[in-house]
């Protein structure tokens, strides 16, 4: 930041907007670039890891990834499941009612 001691830079520093200082701007840009590089590196590493894990899982015989369902499909599936559950519950209720009636009849006959 030695360049910042030049007259031009001093004027920049004194002005209200610090962004004008070209040296500081350069530093900011450099930091930004390094951040982006790190991000890319991490992304590559993650992808490599994922590929490795996929290969291992295939060797072990795990199922392949399920196709991702969109929000709407998920909702539909939930509705279907809910409907099935309700129907099952109602069937069970009817069975219980029937059994109760039969028990009552048997008790009446026993008297």
Automatic annotation (TrEMBL):
<feature type="compositionally biased region" description="Basic residues">
    <location>
        <begin position="91"/>
        <end position="103"/>
    </location>
</feature>
<feature type="region of interest" description="Disordered">
    <location>
        <begin position="25"/>
        <end position="111"/>
    </location>
</feature>
<keyword id="KW-0808">Transferase</keyword>
<dbReference type="GO" id="GO:0032259">
    <property type="term" value="P:methylation"/>
</dbReference>
<keyword id="KW-0489">Methyltransferase</keyword>
<feature type="compositionally biased region" description="Basic residues">
    <location>
        <begin position="61"/>
        <end position="83"/>
    </location>
</feature>
<feature type="compositionally biased region" description="Basic residues">
    <location>
        <begin position="25"/>
        <end position="45"/>
    </location>
</feature>
<feature type="compositionally biased region" description="Basic and acidic residues">
    <location>
        <begin position="46"/>
        <end position="60"/>
    </location>
</feature>
<dbReference type="GO" id="GO:0008168">
    <property type="term" value="F:methyltransferase activity"/>
</dbReference>
<protein>
    <submittedName>
        <fullName>Putative histone-lysine n-methyltransferase h3 lysine-79 specific</fullName>
    </submittedName>
</protein>
């Amino acid at each position: 930041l030695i360049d910042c001691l030049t007259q031009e830079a001093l004027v920049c520093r004194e002005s209200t907007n610090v962004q004008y200082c070209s040296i500081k701007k350069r530093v900011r840009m450099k930091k930004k670039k390094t951040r982006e590089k790190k991000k890319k590196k991490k992304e590559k590493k993650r992808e490599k890891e994922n590929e490795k894990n996929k290969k291992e899982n295939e060797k072990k015989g795990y199922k392949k990834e399920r196709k991702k369902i969109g929000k709407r499909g998920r909702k539909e599936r939930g509705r279907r499941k809910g409907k099935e559950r309700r129907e099952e519950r109602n069937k069970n209720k009817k069975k219980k009612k029937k059994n109760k009636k039969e028990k009552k009849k048997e008790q009446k006959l026993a008297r």
